[in-house]
Amino acid sequence: MSGKLYSDYINNTFKRMKAKRLQFLLILCLSVSLLTCKDETKTQKNLDIEETNQNAQDSTTVFSEKSLDSLQHKTKTIKRNRLLEAVDDKANLQELMVSKRFFKEEDLYVLDYNYPHLNEKADPGFRVFNVFIEENYLNISTTENEILEDKELLCDTLKTNSIRDKRIIDYKIYNLNDQWLSTVLYKENYYSGMRYATYLFDCINFDLKNHNFLYFDDVFTPNAEKTIYSTLNSIINEGITSGDLYFECWELSLGDFKAYKNNFIITNDTITYYFDDCVICPSYTGTYSIKIPIQRIMHVLKKYNAPLRVSYTK
Description:
By secondary structure, the protein is an alpha+beta fold.
């Protein structure tokens, strides 16, 4: 090979090598660029997904809170209506008693009391009942002082004074065989800043013939506490299992049973226990009362002291 041909061969070889090297670099740059773009796209997609998930989670949280609030408001309304709409014997007791009312409205509070008053002209012994009501529920000055003391304990920056507290008392009354008078007084309290009203209950059983009050030991046989306690919890658990407005409720504690042992009324076929808010259920669900069928606890009733219009035959 001549010198010129050899020189051309070498130059062409270098040119081809240079071209292939340039081609390789171009391919490498393109690959890197594609990979970078792919990573950026993947990262952006991940960010978009995370943002979408967060937005969905936030929306779900807001939706859940709204749904829960709506459900609680609904069940609270049902629970309250069951109490207020219960039919009692007022209409049939007009000669025996009258409903009296006390109403007072101030800047910081409202007192609205509706309570039973027995006819002392029909029987002077009924004064025992009337005095009991007056001393235990109509001590207005004590109630006013309690409300004002509560107001003073609250921070002024909350502006709670612009919302008036309300104390409401009303009642249901039942007459059994013209001998026993069973009254449940329910106290509806609206406190400043509270979402819902709270309910408290007092049950009064009065012997119209002997003019005395009746308590657990007057109605049930000795050592009946265990039976009544277990029966109440059995009925509560039946309600929880059924899911009928009993969600988030719980069994009655032994301590609470002892505190509410006398808080029952007697009707024709049931003995009904009443419990304050948050004793067996939260304020927005469940029930205020537990009805025990007479047949279920017949063996622990004092038959000689139980004028119940039911058959004791099993």
